[in-house]
Amino acid sequence: MLTLTLIATATIMNRHGDFYIRISSFLYLISSGLFVLSAQVFYRLQPRFILVFVPVVLALVIYLFPDLRDSFVARSRVNTSLNALLCAWAAYLYAYHNENRLVSARLLSAVFALGSLSYLVLFSGSFIQSGAWVAAAYNSIVFKANYFLLLMVILSLAPLMLALVLENHSAKYKKLARIDALTGIRNRRAFFDDADQMLESLCREDGSRSVSVAVIDIDHFKNVNDTFGHAAGDKVIAYLAELMGEVIGDKGVFGRTGGEEFSVFLPDMESAAATRLLDRLRTAFEEQAGRTIENAQAITLSAGVFAVRAQVSKLDDAISKADEALYQAKRMGRNRIERHHTEGVQPDLAKPHLITQ
Question: What pTM value is reported for the model?
Fold first, then answer.
């Protein structure tokens, strides 16, 4: 609000005499510096407060030289070039750091780019028309066009910045609604949404491609909570999520879909490869999970895997099959990976595959 107030004040003063024009030029420079600072603060970058003062100091330097101080053209060249640079910087920040792809940030970047262009036109105009530009400044078509463009830029900044704040909050809340608070990975809703979209995409591209799904469960997790407390249990769950990020990474989609239950969707991965991947996860978890709790014994996990062609699969059905395989792993002693006996990717994958210690 302070920045917009400064701009509004400068715009009004810019229409009254040389003395007020000189003051307004400094207000424009301060405002441009504040816009850069606001973008840095918004994107949690290290703010450079000196930006507010350096352009003004540079502009004040010309008052040390009488020839420059009394020359409207010289002052204009300094002010317009510095404003153009600062507006271009603000445009860059809103464009480059817009990781959430906010529409309002893109519009702000475009508006600041237009503002920078307008200042550059005024800057170049002082060279093209030389001294005549001073006498006819307020009557020239170039000046009027740019004054109108700058006015539109100024008027659009307030609603766009308000829209940016609202859109950013909306995006943040949507993101939080998809993230499991304890582990920081997808929650149940986000997992099924993303996995469903990926499955539909595979079906459109080539329905014969294989996919694997898995359901993972921490063995005897109730005993962990009862013996060491729920805080310790949370540490184990969080560690498993972290380990899944390391082992599975971008090979597929995974999320926490229950208390100690996780689900995995692995596109373009047949049953044998998915089983090997999950066994790496099982082994690493068995070796490290117990260390998250003082005096704890080894903590293990079990998983069920189901593989099928994308075109004949529905995610809910595939997860259900993987869940059946998980219960089979539990019945057979836990700390193991089981494949569902009806999976239909390759003939040799129809046999149950057991991984034990």
Answer: 0.63
CA nearest to 349, candidates 274, 278, 283: 274
Two structure tokens written together for 226 = 């009862």
Alpha carbon distance, N-terminus to C-terminus of the chain = 65
User: Can 200 be counted among the known catalytic residues?
Assistant: no
Per-residue model confidence as pLDDT tens digits over 256-284: 999 999 999 999 899 899 999 999 999 99
Distance CA(23)–CA(9), nearest Å, equals: 10
Angle at 213 between CA 212 and CA 216, to 5 degrees: 135
Right CATH for 188-355 from 3.30.70.270, 3.40.640.10, 3.10.180.10, 3.30.70.260: 3.30.70.270
Find the catalytic residue in 260, 270, 338, 343.
260
Cα 194 to Cα 255, 258, 263, distances in angstroms: 10, 17, 12
The enclosing H or E element of 135 equals helix 132-135
